[in-house]
Amino acid sequence: MLDPRTAEGSGVSSGRREGPDPPGPKPSGKGEPAVKSVAVVGASGAVGEVMVRLLEERKFPVGSIKFLASERSLGKSVKFRGEAHPIQLLTADAFRGVDIVLSSTPGSISKEFSPLAAKAGAVVVDNSSAFRMDPDVPLVVPEVNPGDVAGHKGIIANPNCSTIQMVVALKPLHDALRIRRVIVSTYQSVSGAGQKGMDELRAQVRAEVEGRPAPRPAKFAHPIAFNCVPQIDDFLPDGYTKEEMKMVHETRKIMGDASILVSPTCVRVPVLYSHSESILVETERPITPAIARDLWAYAPGLKVVDDPSQLAYPMPAPARGEDHVFVGRIRQDLGNPHALLFWCVGDNLRKGAALNAVQIAEELLKLDPVGA
Questions:
Q1: pTM here?
Q2: Residue 85: active-site member
Q3: Domains of the chain, each with CATH number or no CATH
Q4: Of these residues, 161, 174, 266, 324, which one is catalytic?
């Protein structure tokens, strides 16, 4: 039996650097994390709304909070801890006095405003793709590489939703057995495309049920109702999509191992919430379902649901609203003792986005010894 607490490490860098402390929140010196001034950018979006709920649920030490968005959201308000807060306009001056920024905006907006927030002294946890592959910006999944948070220079990138849930499952296997290759097919819900994606699915389903012509697709390349679309984001010259290449590059960066081969196919499916993934992993050392279960038993943020006799396996609907990544359908490759197949499901708006960002913010609170 392999115990991940004693197995050889994967060589993932802790990300800690010597030198001046990075900008950002510091503990209060009273044995508890100091209350923080927090700004949520994109608070009216699908991910932003979940971020707000998680700050409440997880009792993040918020002293003051503001909600920032574009002019389209002005006049709206966000309820936080029983109090309504008007949404404020996103400007460079809005970050004065802010310690932590949780941002969920398009990449172009983040490229403009995240550096301004960092310059103002805040630490930005950015959910866009703008800075993920920047060598000076940590790309963090707290169950995998929490130490990399300490290497930040004012911006920390939140990975792609499909990458996050996969690396949570891969990390224990890689530490103990060293992963050589991953073949993954994703079944990604429409909420990954935001509120407009969910609205488009609902409208098309309603029209189909009522016997009316379905509205033309706008968010997706083809009708999504009762359909699967094997394209997420734009195609690249080599035939892969941008979404697929995110999984390749982000996995290697988060895991700290550029030698891992990743072969992805990303598919949009007519499900509202939660992403699912069919994964085949090849390892240097032999792997069996029993070994994988033993390793996953210790894994933070992960639950095994795998009892075929009771028809128990992860599914997207039950995963909605859950913080864990779920794995099941665990089985040996039929011809390779170094390969294992499994099914992986997670709530893309929570662990795949908002929860991971809030967990990164929680890691910021640990950078210095509490009470020092």
A1: 0.89
A2: no
A3: 36-159+354-364 (3.40.50.720), 163-348 (3.30.360.10)
A4: 161
